[in-house]
């Protein structure tokens, strides 16, 4: 399936590639080492329209489509998976607001999103990972407010100094389980909402991931997104889109690892010739390129279907499953081609290998994607 981009789409993808090469690639190693984005990076991304890529122009965004968003995330991931992840989660939070928010909420939060305030999405809890329906955080109505108590974990885009607002999934009527869950926008500076510390991670080190703690945190009922009791469905439908972003990130990581393998195997001389003059290396490269192209086709297919308003529950799960497993494999093979040098921090593949490993784990493990896919296959829906 070929995706022929419009001039506007192509311009955005070219802009992302150029920005990634000139502004992100030179600082990726530093951001990984220091476990934070360099100051001003997100502001620059906002100025160029990336932070509002999926926000309609009437709210201050670039108003671009799902395919372009996926391609932009892919371009960033080729050089820095942390930046790609930040943008993927941020655009997921904008997407949920766009699909479910009131006009006031859209005007307020989407405008902020475009200006570089970073959004997050909080569903996971210590005992509710794959089993998202087991979440226990409560938001109990009290007059015109909800009073939130509980905690979330592994929340991307939130750190002690990072993150501006979060879409929280919490029980407004605990006895109704998933049908009693609601989606609520919580501003970072709300009293009772704290982010004690960022996690110390193996990869994606520049992108913050944290526990969120809510203690008698009071938010006005006007912060409710969509209807009360619809939070679980809002979260699941949002994740269908989020998984396309993660698949795009995985495609970019695989492409970056493949590029590194091609460069290294061309300049590395052993036995008097470049190592990619050997068929063993050539076959590695052929497999890496073919599988990555297949991952990209699945990803863009899911993106195009979502843009057309179709359900992408199965397609997004397939793209995320295939692309994330492929990213891990390609990063492994690229490091293998680099030999011992690939294990050293002097080579970008060392970071890419660590970054790739999370992708089959978050926004639904590969095993959960297979649950989603097999349910669709069995029921024919
Ligand atoms: N879009 C809209 N609604 C959806 C949906 C989707 N993609 N998926 C499920 N729902 C709705 C269902 O229709 C159902 O509603 P009804 O009760 O009205 O029929 C409700 O949500 C419950 O769905 P289901 O019975 O499928 O829930 P399960 O507990 O079996 O969970 C899985 C389904 C496993 C798929 C879900 O828990 C999941 O995706 N887990 C992984 C979570 C995850 O990705 N976490 C990543 C971290 S994000 S911070």
TrEMBL record:
Domain Acyl-CoA oxidase/dehydrogenase middle, residue spans: 120-217
Cofactor(s) essential for the protein: FAD
Top-rank lineage group of the source organism: Bacteria
Homology family: Belongs to the acyl-CoA dehydrogenase family.
Species of the source: Coprococcus catus GD/7
Keyword tags: FAD, Flavoprotein, Oxidoreductase
Gene Ontology molecular-function annotations: acyl-CoA dehydrogenase activity; flavin adenine dinucleotide binding
Stored PROSITE patterns: ACYL_COA_DH_1 (PS00072), ACYL_COA_DH_2 (PS00073)
The protein's name in its UniProt record: Acyl-CoA dehydrogenases
Annotated EC: 1.3.99.3
Top EC class, one word: oxidoreductase
PANTHER family: ACYL-COA DEHYDROGENASE, ISOVALERYL-COA DEHYDROGENASE, MITOCHONDRIAL-RELATED
Span of domain Acyl-CoA dehydrogenase/oxidase N-terminal: 6-116
Domain Acyl-CoA dehydrogenase/oxidase C-terminal residue range list: 229-377
